[in-house]
Amino acid sequence: MIGKIKSYAGFILALLLDRDIARTLRRTGASEIEFRIKDPREITREQQKKAHALIGEIGEYRGYYPWEAKLLMKYYFCEDERLEFFSLSNVDRTIASAFIDWLIEFCFRENIPTPDPMQSYCDDIERYLYHCLDYRKCALCNDPADIYHVKAIGMGRNRSTIIHLGCPAMALCRVHHTEAEKIGRDTFYAKHHVYGIPLDEYLCERLKMNTEERRDAIAQPNHKGNHQNEQNHQ
């Protein structure tokens, strides 16, 4: 679906869509939508270099010819995002950025090594940090990572009952985790150009961290078990 922006003011945006969606809204009961702002400017030279570098690493690791890797990656990306096939010579910057982000996630998911950390290829740092948490890859070196809680869990607080949803966190290997604790959060951020991002429901589930629902679901069987034990002793 494509729409044109008719007017906007602050948080209010009026769109003219290319088709009527009233029936779909009534059928699904949807009250929210997602949209992507299309940057009309063409892909930058820097974006082209990043995309080609990532495609080259994927092709070499998988044993594809360069042209074959490029064709396959663009095809899979367009299938996933439901986009028309495009050329890296003149695609718009929005799609180029999304493609680079998709290539980084592909490398994480398929464990494809790269000579430099993925941070040097990323076009959207927040999406990159999200993928690092999702796949437990250190944001700085891409080694297997622990979860660094930006706001440390203090003494006396039970990790099994804390609600992690919305808490800022970052994926860091043991070496970089230790560095962050040693030099302090703000210095670490400024030095490495990274930062913590809030854990959403997907990440909490993926990382086995508590939302209210997850905490209550884990606690429920224990509660039932304790209740049963009390009955057995009566």
Description:
It is a single chain. By secondary structure, the chain is mainly alpha-helical. It has a domain at 148-234. The protein is 49% helix and 10% strand. It has helices at 22-28, 45-62, 66-81, 93-110, 125-134, 174-183, 185-192, 201-206, 212-233, and strands at 3-9, 12-17, 146-149, 168-172, 197-198. The strands form 2 sheets. It has a 3-stranded antiparallel beta sheet. A two-stranded antiparallel ribbon has the order 1-2. Residues 154-158 have low confidence and may be disordered.
List keywords for this structure.
mainly alpha; globular; three-stranded antiparallel β-sheet; 234 residues
Whole-angstrom Rg: 22 Å
Overall body shape: globular
The whole-number mean of residue pLDDT values reads 83
Distance between the termini: 64 Å
Strand content: 5-15%
The percentage helix is 40-55%
Q: Tally the beta strands.
A: 5
DSSP helical segment count:
9
Oligomer: single chain
Order of helices and strands: EEHHHHHEEHHEHH
Structural class: mainly alpha
Major beta-sheet overview: 3 strands, antiparallel
Looking across the biggest beta sheet, what order are the strands in? 3-4-5
Pick out the low-confidence regions. Answer: 154-158
In short:
With 234 residues, this protein is mainly α. 49% of the residues lie in helices and 10% in strands. Residues 154-158 have low confidence and may be disordered.
Topology readout:
Elements: E1 3-9, E2 12-17, H1 22-28, H2 45-62, H3 66-81, H4 93-110, H5 125-134, E3 146-149, E4 168-172, H6 174-183, H7 185-192, E5 197-198, H8 201-206, H9 212-233
Antiparallel strand pairs: 1-2, 3-4, 4-5
Helix pairs in contact: 2-3, 2-4, 4-5, 6-7
